[in-house]
Specification:
Blueprint (H helix, E strand, L loop, with lengths): L10 H15 L6 H8 L3 H5 L5 H26 L3 H18 L3 H5 L2 H6 L1 H27 L9 H20 L7 H16 L3
Helix pairs in contact: 1-2, 1-4, 4-5, 4-8, 5-8, 5-9, 5-10, 8-9, 9-10
Length: 198
C-alpha cells in the first residue's frame, strides 16, 4: 500500500531506495516516481522534497560529502600515525561501499558527468578536497618517518582510491566472483607495504 511521505521519512530511506534502483537498473532508471515506489510513498509526496532526478542525485552527493568528511575526521582523531589513519579511512570506505553498493556507479555515471554538469563539478570538487586531505595525511607520514620519503603523495592517493573503487565496481555489477573482504584486505596489505618506510 502506498502511503504519504511524512517528515519523519529519513534521508537514508530515500538514499537507499535510490541506490537500490541504480544497482538494479542503472542511473537512467532513477526517477522521482521510481524512488517513491521503492520507498512505498506517493510520487506527489516525494515531489515535495525532490522535484526531479537531479535533486535526488544532489541529495546523494550531499550525503556522500558528509560521510566522507566524517570518516576522515574520525580517523584523524582516532589515530596518531598516518598509516593507521589511512587504514581506518580505507576500512570505513569499504563498509560504506558494502552498505551502499551503487556509490561507485554514481561517480562514473553520464548523468552526473555530462547531463548535469553542475552536479559533476560539485562531485569533482568534493573528490579534489578528499584527495588533498589524504595527501596531507601521507605527507604527514613522510615527515614522521613512517612513510617512505620517495612516496609521491598524489600518486599514492590515486592508488588508494583504486584500492576500494575497483573491487566495489566489479562486485556491484557481478562482473567477477571473489570474496570482497578478502580482496580488500589483500589490497590494503600491498598498499601499506608499498608506502611503509621500514
Amino acid at each position: 500500500m502506498v502511503t504519504k511521505l511524512h517528515t519523519s521519512i529519513r534521508k537514508e530511506q530515500i538514499i537507499e531506495a535510490s541506490l537500490s534502483i541504480i544497482i538494479k537498473q542503472g542511473v537512467n532508471a532513477l526517477t522521482v516516481r521510481n524512488v517513491a515506489a521503492e520507498v512505498g510513498v506517493t510520487a506527489s509526496s516525494l515531489y515535495r522534497h525532490y522535484k526531479n532526478k537531479a535533486a535526488i542525485m544532489s541529495a546523494l552527493l550531499d550525503l556522500l560529502f558528509e560521510i566522507r568528511t566524517d570518516i576522515i575526521n574520525q580517523a584523524r582523531n582516532n589515530n596518531c600515525n598516518a598509516l593507521d589513519t589511512l587504514e581506518e579511512i580505507y576500512h570505513s570506505y569499504i563498509r560504506l561501499l558494502e552498505q551502499y553498493k551503487g556509490l561507485g556507479l554514481i561517480y562514473f555515471s553520464d548523468f552526473v558527468n555530462f547531463e548535469y554538469p553542475e552536479l559533476g563539478q560539485r562531485m569533482r570538487n568534493d573528490i579534489s578536497r578528499g584527495r588533498k586531505e589524504l595527501e596531507q595525511i601521507i605527507e604527514s607520514g613522510k615527515q614522521q618517518g613512517e612513510i617512505a620519503p620517495k612516496t609521491n603523495a598524489e600518486q599514492a592517493v590515486i592508488s588508494f582510491i583504486c584500492l576500494y573503487i575497483m573491487p566495489s565496481m566489479l562486485k556491484s555489477r557481478n562482473l567477477h566472483h571473489f570474496d570482497l573482504s578478502e580482496q580488500t584486505e589483500a589490497n590494503w596489505k600491498i598498499f601499506r607495504d608499498s608506502l611503509s618506510a621500514q
